[in-house]
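Let's practice the habit of predicting before peeking. Look at the sequence and jot down your guess about where helices and strands might fall. Then scroll down.
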Amino acid sequence: MPPQGAGCRPGWPCCRRSLAKPRNDRRAVRAAVRGVVEPQRSRGPDPRVSNFPAGIGVQSKETWRERTVHSGDSMGWKTGLAGLGIVLIGGGAAGAYYWYFREVTPIVTVETIKTRDLEALVSASGKIQPKRLVNISADTPGRVVDLAVNEGDRVAKGQFLLQIDPKLLRTRVQGGAAGLQAAEGALAQLQQSVETARVQLEQTQQNLARQRDLWQQQLTTRESLQRAENDLRAAESTLQEREKQSASQSARVGQERAQLDSARYDLSKVRIESPIDGIVTRRNIQEGETAVIGTMNNPGTVLLTLADMSVIQAEVEVDETNIPSLVIGQLAKITVDALPDRVFRGHVTEIGNSPIQSSGAQGSQTTQATNFKVAVILDEPIPDVRPGFTCSADITTAKRAGSLGVPIPAVAVRELVYDASGQIVRTPRKEAKRPRWEWFWTRGRSVEPVASAAELEPGQTRKETEGVFTIRSGVVQFVPIKIGISGDKYFEVLTGLKAGDTIVTGPYNLVRGMTDGDLVDVEPVRR
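Done guessing? Here is the structure:
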């Protein structure tokens, strides 16, 4: 480090120590900002640079002034920016306050009531299924040696489908036939022995009768008479034994014949033929595989599935709330997702009595919708349709011609107070605009004050009532109505309105929060 005053430059440590705490000369700073160079006075050395080392006072002073000027510029820029931010925030808050709390007149859409043709529909989805579906399983186990059909093939009743290897069953038939023949031969021999025993019995009976005659004439001995009696008892016993053996052998013959018939029946079942006219919708077996005997239509033992597509039905799932309105014979319109441009007609033929059991629903604590199966027969066949196609059905449950209809979004529910005669007790309310904050916070609910149970007068009751808001001279009023059937877009109105009345139809959130006496503006009709 060079000695002080010997040509040191600004920024060296010696200068930093000298400028550690410079004096604050505001007049010099303002002059520097204005670009005015203040003349050097003759009253002695400048106290601001009195601490500067000899030889570098002027240069260090210039550096210090530059730093002071730049610091002043930065502080002025920040102060201006902060002031601008305060102005913007204050203006935004004032605007928001004005927008939020000023009274407004909402713009609503209206509609004039008129007569319409309404149709109540129950919509449901499901699958296309044939009226008759046959699952074919094997009646006898064995290897498939011939398979004549594929999925999608059309088959006629009695047409050959597949063949199971018959060798084992033919052997059973041959063995059964031989066993039956042997049993029948043994039965014939026993029957012959029965006849012989019967002849011997007759001879012993005759001999005993002769010995008894001789005994009475005292022409024979007592030993001869007893021998004849013993021979008779022996002949009777022999005949009974031969008859039992013959009966047993006859039963064995019947058993052998039954086994032979069973073997012949099983042999006849190795050739499977189509029981109906239809389409092969599923084939679960290949030639060379072993077929097992099906038990109660076990899906694992089904070889082929045949569907009679001449009569098609839509099996749809209907919610429990719509089941009471369904009746056998009601008309329906069916659309198939695979054929979106066509609508098919049908009629209800079956309404389930038991709810559809969802797989895995047992033991579940989750509440699920309860649906019932409804079958709709199509009045005409559908070409190129397949079982399992997704479909939708619109079932017509009621029709009304020339009835008053109101749009569904226009109907609201309010709690009203009724007197003893059933008349509505309306609370007087001044017609006025409502502030925007009230419209904002009351969307979806009414703000009309409702008397509590303690405030009701004797004979008054409170209940929820369906109705619409009519409009007259920009003022709305809630009018109770009685609703009939529900169409696709309109409710049938039984009482409360007449043709030509103007009602508020939207926006939906405003209708839900609207009260008697609200002032509204009608949205102009767009052309």
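How did you do? Residues 98 and 214 are 151 Å apart (CA to CA).
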